[in-house]
């Protein structure tokens, strides 16, 4: 059957695995995928023998996969569509297909049977196939109509044929689009403020913004300014150690929260336990906190150490006051103890695995063992191993500590969500879901079976990165994702949608295709791998609808028009950045050109602030870091920036928004003024975009960029604090003026 040349067999297998044969970059340059890249990516997907014999075997196995497995692992239904059918594949040596009986039923998420059928005898096969000398038949059965939204497990048992067969598959019933508040359909338009939580200063925090600070921002922005939402950096779990483990876009786990944001003094045990109060009043400890608070950069290691010290004491008091019995089977006997117990039960196995990873990693650090799980003792590398189970039994006291931290973080964030409602914020917290996580972190350990650890992901060459970008984390394997019933994606969406009214999906194009790079190869040798977008969009729509959470897709960069069209149809908002909304001539698009189903913002964490852009601080920073290349290139960038500033002034003038006294010559306005920044935000407010965000850094005029892509410790990425406290922000008249301008243009219908 497969008698083509080896190179053609390689191309066929790569095509079936979703590996693109070629692609066009953002400049329109055509790139053809090489056989070397195909082999490397296929190897990362688990295909071992990639010469002629192995390729033929792999292609043949691909053709026979559902027949040998018994059924497809996942079946998706969209609410309102015809119910359709599912197929069962069973070995049946006899030509008399009528001997097969099939008993199957659906289990809802609560475990109850909701549909049960007995099929046969007298079943007729829809198709037959011979595989390795064995005869298989395909049977088809109708799915029940009008199933409620949700996940179902189909359990199937056959009798007769060559052998009894037991198989299962996941049935997903999803809405046709993500949740969208009805107010937007009626003309409602909203605005909010965006911030990096760690950057908040206050008179009471411990050197990093925390959930108490965020509650104060909710009170100020929601009740005081009338903001509808607060945009946040990802709150994913980090190791919080410099310089490599502080980026919120490269977390240890995207499923759980960064315990650094816990308001320690808001923890019940911190207020009631004598040993905790004694430690908090110790002069040397207070000096550590004060030094971290006064620092202009977040001291992740110092703050994490101080918080962990107090939270360890809180944990001991928590167990003493709320539980009885002996390890590992402690029993709660207070309302607080039962609240923790219920949280752990509801969070289930994913939380236990995360806490286990934390405890294993801590033990490795104590024993001077590598913190990379790939270098742990062999028994600890597999989450379901006997060694890990024994570790859990032996170290349950420590595992429970990490459960306690997640409970505290979830509890405080849950209270915050209620505060946004009380403050009259129709959206509330607007979260950010990072694209990936550290391969050496908790998600990499737990989901190693669905991650391609032999590959990285990134971006193809473009004007900003002529050699492409490598983001340094492993992509999910689309084949293994589906084989696993998409469990990783279900948990990922569910855990991140539960805490707010909106969420931004970083690099949303990854639902369709992602740029893979073979480990150790330059990014220019990568290519795209396609994903089962319709399946992933169905899961996203289901979880979004259940959580009543709006979804925004970060669709910047090399994004084909058909992807944006499909996202729009799926109810996902486009992410529009002022700097990039340009016509082919380089002029700024007028407000009316923005799509309604979008969120508009001036800039992002990877781009210069408004003041930094206007004053060329980003160009100066890149030059100082050696990222520009030559003085001539720098001069060219500065000249282009001056031209862009003139275009911005022209755009503002055309909309009647240019502040009085501002000349058409940007050289006469060398520094970004508050009036000019306000005018640019008004420009966005005049767009039909459903949502507009104002970054706090842009309102107060900060120049420093949050993150300079392509750097790690050359620039203080993810460490810079605001230059004013929350208490000062609440008194800053610029925010009141901004709110007064935005409220009339942005209101619910």
Give an overview of the whole structure:
With 749 residues, this protein is α/β, with parallel strands linked by helices. It has a domain at 80-174: Sandwich (Immunoglobulin-like). Helices cover 39% and strands 18% of the residues. The protein is built from 24 helices and 26 strands. The strands form 7 sheets. It has an 8-stranded parallel beta barrel with strand order 11-12-17-20-23-24-25-26, surrounded by 4 helices. A 5-stranded mixed beta sheet has the order 3-10-9-5-6. A 4-stranded antiparallel beta sheet has the order 19-18-21-22. A hairpin with a 5-residue loop joins β9 (150-159) and β10. α5 (211-225) runs parallel beside α12 (396-422), α10 packs across α12 (396-422) and α15 (487-497) packs parallel to α16 (533-547). The longest helix is centred in the middle third of the chain and has 32 residues, at 335-366. It is globular, with a radius of gyration of 28 Å.
Topology:
Elements: H1 6-16, E1 22-24, E2 30-32, H2 35-44, H3 52-69, E3 74-78, E4 85-91, E5 101-107, E6 113-119, E7 127-131, E8 134-142, E9 150-159, E10 165-174, H4 182-185, E11 190-195, H5 211-225, E12 229-232, E13 236-237, E14 253-257, H6 268-272, H7 274-280, H8 283-294, H9 300-322, E15 323-324, E16 331-332, H10 335-366, H11 386-394, H12 396-422, E17 428-433, H13 442-446, E18 455-459, E19 469-470, H14 478-483, H15 487-497, E20 502-505, E21 513-518, E22 527-530, H16 533-547, E23 550-553, H17 561-569, E24 573-577, E25 598-601, H18 610-615, H19 617-624, H20 631-654, H21 674-685, E26 691-695, H22 696-700, H23 726-729, H24 733-745
Parallel strand pairs: 3-10, 11-12, 11-26, 12-17, 17-20, 20-23, 23-24, 24-25, 25-26
Antiparallel strand pairs: 1-2, 4-8, 5-6, 5-9, 7-8, 9-10, 13-14, 15-16, 18-19, 18-21, 21-22
């Amino acid at each position: 059957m497969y008698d083509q040349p080896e190179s053609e067999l390689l191309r066929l297998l790569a095509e079936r695995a979703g590996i693109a044969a070629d692609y066009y970059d953002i400049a329109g340059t055509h790139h053809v995928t090489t056989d070397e890249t195909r082999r490397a990516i296929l190897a990362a997907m688990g295909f071992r023998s990639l010469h002629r014999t192995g390729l033929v075997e792999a292609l043949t196995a691909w053709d026979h996969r559902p027949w040998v497995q018994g059924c497809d692992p996942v079946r998706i239904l969209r609410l309102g569509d015809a119910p359709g059918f599912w197929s069962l594949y069973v070995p049946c040596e006899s030509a008399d297909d009528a001997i097969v009986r099939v008993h199957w039923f659906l289990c809802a998420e609560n475990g109850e049977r909701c549909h049960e059928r007995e099929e046969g005898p007298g079943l007729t096969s829809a198709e037959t196939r011979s595989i390795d000398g064995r005869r298989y038949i395909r049977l088809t059965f109708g799915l029940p109509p009008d199933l409620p939204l949700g996940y179902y497990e189909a359990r199937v048992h056959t009798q007769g044929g060559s052998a009894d067969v037991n198989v299962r598959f996941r049935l997903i019933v999803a809405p046709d689009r993500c949740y969208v508040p009805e107010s937007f359909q009626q003309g409602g338009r909203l605005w909010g403020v965006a911030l990096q939580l760690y950057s908040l200063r206050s008179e009471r925090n411990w050197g990093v913004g925390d959930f108490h600070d965020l509650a104060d921002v909710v009170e100020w922005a929601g009740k005081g300014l009338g903001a509808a939402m607060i945009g946040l950096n990802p709150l994913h779990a980090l190791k919080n150690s410099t310089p490599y483990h502080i980026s919120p876009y490269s977390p240890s786990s995207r499923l759980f929260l960064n315990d650094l944001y816990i308001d320690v003094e808001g923890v019940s045990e911190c207020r009631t336990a004598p040993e905790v109060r004694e430690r908090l009043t110790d002069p040397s400890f207070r000096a550590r906190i004060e030094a971290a608070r006064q620092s202009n950069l977040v001291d992740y290691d110092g703050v994490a150490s101080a918080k962990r010290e107090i939270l360890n004491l809180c944990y001991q008091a928590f167990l003493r006051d709320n539980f009885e019995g002996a390890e590992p089977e402690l029993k709660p006997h207070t309302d607080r103890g039962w609240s923790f117990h219920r949280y752990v039960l509801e969070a289930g196995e994913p939380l236990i695995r995360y806490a286990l990873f934390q405890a294993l990693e801590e033990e490795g650090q104590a024993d001077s063992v590598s913190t990379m799980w790939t270098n742990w003792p062999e028994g600890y590398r597999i989450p379901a191993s006997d060694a890990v189970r024994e570790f859990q039994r032996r170290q349950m006291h420590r595992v429970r500590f990490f459960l306690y931290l997640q409970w505290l973080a979830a509890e405080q964030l849950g209270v915050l969500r209620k505060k946004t409602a009380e403050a009259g914020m129709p959206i509330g917290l607007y979260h950010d879901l990072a694209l990936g996580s550290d391969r050496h972190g908790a998600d990499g350990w737990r989901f190693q079976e669905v991650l391609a650890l032999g590959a990285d992901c990134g971006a193809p060459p473009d004007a900003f990165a002529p050699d492409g970008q490598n983001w340094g984390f492993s992509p999910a394997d689309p084949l293994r994702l589906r084989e696993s019933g998409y469990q990783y994606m279900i948990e990922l969406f569910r855990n991140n949608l539960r805490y707010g009214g909106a969420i931004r999906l970083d690099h949303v194009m990854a639902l369709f295709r992602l740029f893979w790079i073979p480990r150790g190869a330059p990014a220019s040798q990568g290519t795209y791998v396609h994903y089962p977008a319709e399946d992933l969009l169905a899961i996203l729509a289901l979880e979004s609808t259940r959580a009543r959470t709006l979804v925004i897709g970060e669709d910047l960069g090399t994004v084909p028009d058909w992807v944006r069209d499909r996202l729009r149809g799926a109810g996902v908002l486009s992410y529009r950045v002022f700097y990039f909304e340009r016509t082919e001539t380089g002029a700024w698009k007028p407000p009316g050109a923005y799509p309604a189903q979008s969120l508009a913002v001036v800039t992002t964490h990877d781009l210069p602030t408004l003041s930094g852009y206007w004053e060329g601080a980003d160009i100066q920073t890149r030059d100082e870091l050696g990222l520009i290349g030559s003085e001539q290139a720098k001069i060219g960038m500065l000249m282009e920036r001056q031209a862009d500033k003139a275009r911005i002034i022209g755009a503002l003038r055309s909309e009647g928004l240019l502040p009085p006294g501002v000349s058409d010559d940007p050289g006469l306005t060398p520094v970004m003024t508050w009036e000019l920044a306000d005018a640019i935000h008004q420009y966005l407010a005049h767009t039909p975009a459903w949502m507009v965000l104002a970054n706090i850094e842009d309102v107060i005029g900060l120049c420093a960029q949050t993150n300079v892509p392509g750097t790690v410790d050359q620039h203080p990425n993810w460490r810079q604090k605001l230059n004013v406290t929350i208490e000062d922000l609440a008194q800053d008249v610029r925010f009141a003026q901004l709110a007064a301008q935005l409220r009339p243009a942005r209101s619910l219908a």
